[in-house]
Design brief:
The protein is α+β, with helices and mostly antiparallel strands. Among the domains are: 69 residues, 434 Repressor (Amino-terminal Domain) (Orthogonal Bundle), CATH 1.10.260; 58 residues, no CATH class. Helices cover 31% and strands 18% of the residues. It has twelve helices and twelve strands. The strands form three sheets. A five-stranded antiparallel beta sheet has the order 6-5-4-3-7. Strands 11-10-9-8-12 form a five-stranded antiparallel beta sheet, with no helix packed on it. The protein has a two-stranded parallel sheet with strand order 1-2. Helix 4 crosses helix 6.
Length: 271
């Protein structure tokens, strides 16, 4: 990548653009390890299970009941999820992760370790922090983010890349790389850029909360969080449609991708 920096076309004053600036890019988390949120699915499953006083066998039975399947989840499968080494632990399928969260009555992001509050999603949690947070994606979990933008941090690149369904990474200039190429840069993959108190201030004041977006009746300014230039061209004013946001009654953005792909603001903001 030869030191090329991201040229993602985010609108002026956007908080994501602020967080990718040099001021925050080089924030050092080594001096404050508690500010780093890592993937903890293995230890969370084990801790929640033992807190209930269940054996791995009992968890397999309870999980099968929640999922509505007749055969219990094998002990060996549960044990592979709970492997003490997070980099070697198996990742349950999305439907099993959802069922585990329901069984333990916690958010999916808490179960994964992406939130430290059992009832909050990752975004809800990091928006309440006053210190820098970084939510990392472990290499073995990266495949679950195919088709989504991921944040890449390394000495040579800092910004969004789109992880395609073919397991390739596309930067803001449209250049394609294999995941292996980018990993050789000792890159850190994250589901969000490192979040600073600035994001908290912007979030509280300007971002329309997820529980209000479907009923918001005013015009909304949308910022696309993706390195895909075709998607970036969709930045602008939108109105509510039956299925999401759009213009002249035509839906262009679905509610299902809110926060993952786009954010709606009450104002476009400016410096």
């Amino acid at each position: 990548m030869n030191g090329t920096k991201s040229s993602v076309q985010l609108r002026k004053g956007d908080p994501i653009a602020k967080m990718s600036s040099a001021k925050y890019k080089n924030a050092n988390t080594d001096d404050a390890p508690d500010q780093l949120i890592g993937y903890k699915l293995n230890s969370r499953i084990r801790a929640l299970r033992t807190a209930q006083g269940w054996s791995q066998s009992v968890l397999g039975e309870r999980l099968a009941e929640v999922m509505g399947i007749s055969s219990p989840i094998p002990n060996s499968t549960v044990a592979s999820w709970e492997h003490k080494n997070a980099s070697m632990a198996k990742i349950p399928s999305p439907d099993k992760i959802e069922a585990l969260a329901k069984l333990f009555d916690v958010s999916i992001d808490y179960l994964k370790g992406l939130s430290e509050n059992p009832k909050q999603s990752a975004l809800e949690f990091i928006s309440s922090r006053t210190q820098i947070q970084n939510i990392e994606i472990l290499p073995q979990e990266l495949a679950q983010h195919m088709g989504e933008p991921v944040w890449v941090s390394s000495d040579e690149y800092n910004g969004w890349m789109l992880l395609t369904d073919y397991y390739e990474l596309i930067d803001a200039k449209g250049q394609k790389y294999s995941v292996q190429e980018v990993r050789k840069l000792n890159a850190v993959f994250s589901s969000f850029p490192p979040c600073h108190v600035y994001f908290k201030q912007i979030y509280n004041r300007y971002v329309i909360p997820e529980n209000q977006i479907r009923n918001y009746r005013e015009r909304m300014w949308v910022c696309i969080n993706s390195p895909d230039k075709n998607l970036q061209s969709l930045n602008g004013w939108y109105i509510r449609t039956p299925d999401g946001l759009g213009v002249k009654g035509k839906t262009l953005l679905s509610y299902d991708s809110y926060f993952d792909l786009w954010l709606a603001y009450t104002t476009p903001l400016s410096d």
